[in-house]
Amino acid sequence: MKKLVLVFILIIFSIPILGGCWNQRELTDLALVLAVGIDKGEGDKKYDVTFQVVVPGNVASGQNGGGGQGPPVVVYESSGDSITEASRKATKKIPRRLYYAHTSIVVIGEELAREGIYNILDPMDRDPEFRTTTVVIIAKDKRAEDIISILTNLDKLPMNRFIKTLESAEAMLGENIKLNIDDLIGAITSPGKEPVISGFVLEGSPEKGTSPQNISTTRPPAMVSVDGLGVIRGGKLVGWLNNFHVRGAVWLLNKMKGTEIKFDFEGKKDAVTTTPYLSDTDVSVTFKNGKPFANVDIDTAFKLSEMDTDFDIEDPHKIEELEKKTSDVIKKEVEAAIKEAQKYKADIFGFGERIHKSNPKRWKELKDDWDNQFAKMDYKIQVHSYYRESGVRGKPFWSDMNK
Amino acid sequence: METAKISGKQLFVLVVLFEMGTALLEGFPVQLKQDAWIAILAGMAGGVLLFLVYYRLFLYYPDLPLTGYVEKIIGKWPGRVIGFIYIIYFAYLAARGLRDFGELLTATIYTNTPIFFLMSILILTITYAIQKGFEVLARVGEIFFAAVYMMAVIGFFLIIFSGLIHLENLKPVLESGWRQIMEVSIRQTMPFPFGEMILFTMILPHLNDQKKAKMICISGIVLSGINITIACIINIATLGTDLFLRSQYPLLSTVSKIQLFNFIERLDVLFMIYVMVAGFIKVAIFYYAAVAGTTGLFKFKNHRQVTFPMGILILVTAMMIASNFAEHIKEGLYIIPVYMHWPLQIYFPCLLLGIAMIRNRKKQKKAPAA
Q: Which residues contact B272 (CB under 8 A, 6 or more apart)?
């Protein structure tokens, strides 16, 4: 009997402990931050920070029509001399506690990126609530708040839309790179490597993009799209790689998952388009006459996707020519990318890191002057491309009509 | 001295769990960057050598714990003083383990909970286990061992299939040079965790088949050493040297990077379960050693009389040893090895072994004459 009473008392006492309610946060008390935008302060504070917070009632969807009226997200703005200050000050306007565990994207305004991004990364790196898989992008020519405030179609939550656009463009076009905070900091801290950050541009009017009108028409007045790679040197944005420069960089970084390549064939301009779909890039840095020298070796398999001139696709000689032309275009793009990076003196390809790994002794001598060494560096590019197939047709349908 | 008996399997499990313990969480010599794993292996080799010293001592007095045979070797009163120092050492290490546990939890998930509260819950649980006797502790160890291994295997495959391993991060090998690696392994990885095997001198008398002690303990040390090395290599390969260097808990950063099919992600919970297991075993074994030592030295009838006061003592010590995390770590890296680990893990046992050898030789010489 005495034992029973004791056990009972023990159970009663363990209830408050085992409940795990010490610092419980109810879901209804949290404001889930999906995206954070950071800009240079327009007022007297150093940073303007915008928070895209989900409005749960308006996102829910289901068979019953679901979803309330109004936009799925709301954007709050705050400013401060540090990111933490801005985040805490924002609670003056937000009725809930800001919760960062679901933040998937951080947008940095171009103006701020040009001044330096060191200071703003630390709080995100340090906070255990903030996941380091969060993706970083730069708002090209615009302020981050403009990008953050846009409503989007297809995906209700703008943040999802950005991430998916990044992913699909990376897989299909290869003109951007999805970079998370961890990789960014890793690249910044490595002496032989500089990071590149994908840029987002806003087409159309930022004001109209924030209204429901933007998702109720088939041709939204404001659209956000992926464009260019920002080159970072010493923690500052120094310039942009555009179009084929980006593609060259993506090839070099061995991140190419798919793209399109067009070239002249048999005297006709842009007559053939091929689509590489498998690729492997091997970069090694050796020394030639005591100077660093990069060997780039790219292997890729491609399909024929479009032809605007008639030739015999089963002829091995033609196929050889196809392979050669595809290789030439890739080689030109890679070359252009290296030249562009050398212009910025930013080793975004990690050549220095490779020297560090293969030849630590030489790296010690080169380390301090690496930016200049990189700018003068010589290189050799070899591309081998392999033709795989031409879809489900051989000759184009009009090949006999013309005769 | 309690009359508990444990099997060889249980001892093996305890050795492995104890050695991996908190070392998997924060025992990596991160200042060596990509060469950290070499220092761990070197530390393990040193640990095995040290264990051979402890083992020889054990062979001379197979029925007594360390605090018991010290008296036999260097005389009653000096032996008691040394025994007392060892008890304090074990209690102190228990307190450090407890503090590690508390600091980790407050830094990561229980960000607003007072550290005292977390630590008292753990120490209460352990006190209960020790009240129940050492055999209970050994059985708990068996259950934990299975759980830890299952999690480790799952985690290992998830990390590999997430494509996170970049072995090129391990290059260039030996950038820090042998000299520095050796220095670090003697200062850091040999005393913690491998030299802490000194504690098993308190536990070996409980083993039912004492002939196997050597094989069991050495294979336990080697297995745990290999596990820590693998964990270290995975951490470096996943995080890269920079993040490895800056992470307070590299393994946590590694585990939280797992992302598979946009579905299996945020697996920090695996890590947290391991923290509980490691914290429990590490503190419990140190705590038990301190309790057993006190019971023997002050001739208490039963170890249960000492358990509770010792628990309070450990808890209070854990609160007081450092005013913040930085201080706690600094002590652990620079002060404890030189002033506590080295004398008590290396100098004293070697000295004791020397004296014991001379004494026993005398005995052996006398024996045929008599």
A: B108, B109
> Are A209 and A285 members of one domain?
no
Q: How many CB atoms lie within 10 A of CB B255?
A: 24
Q: Nearest CB to B243: which of A23, A186, A358? A: A186
pLDDT in tens, A72-91: 888 899 999 998 999 888 88
- Kindly tell me the burial class for residue A394, based on how many C-beta atoms sit within 10 Å of its own C-beta (0-12, 13-18, 19 or more): exposed
Characterize the bridge pairing of strands A30-40 and A105-109. Answer: parallel
pLDDT band at A64, cuts 50/70/90? very low
Residues recorded for chain B: 370
**Range list of β-strands (E), A90-145:** 97-99, 105-109, 135-139
Which chain A residues have any C-beta within 8 angstroms of a chain B C-beta?
17, 22-23, 128, 131-133, 182, 185-186, 189-190, 356-360
The CATH number of residue B322's host domain is: 1.10.4160.10
Q: How many residues does chain A have?
A: 403
More confident: A156 or A5: A5
Spatial CA neighbour of B35 closest among B189, B196, B251, B249: B189
Place of tokens 């923690």: A235
Instruction: Check if the beta carbon of residue A248 is closer than 8 Å to that of residue A354.
Output: no
- Using the Cβ of B125 and the Cβ atoms of chain A, whether some distance falls under 8 Å is answered with no
Among the candidates A241, A273, A305, a domain finishes at A241
**pLDDT at position A66:** 47
Asked if residues A33 and A49 have their Cβ atoms less than 8 Å apart, the reply is no
Q: Measured between beta carbons, which residues in chain A are less than 8 angstroms from residue B113?
A: 22-23
- Domain final residue, candidates A241, A272, A301: A241
- Determine the 3-state secondary structure of A306 from DSSP: strand
β-bridge mates for residue A348, sequence order: none
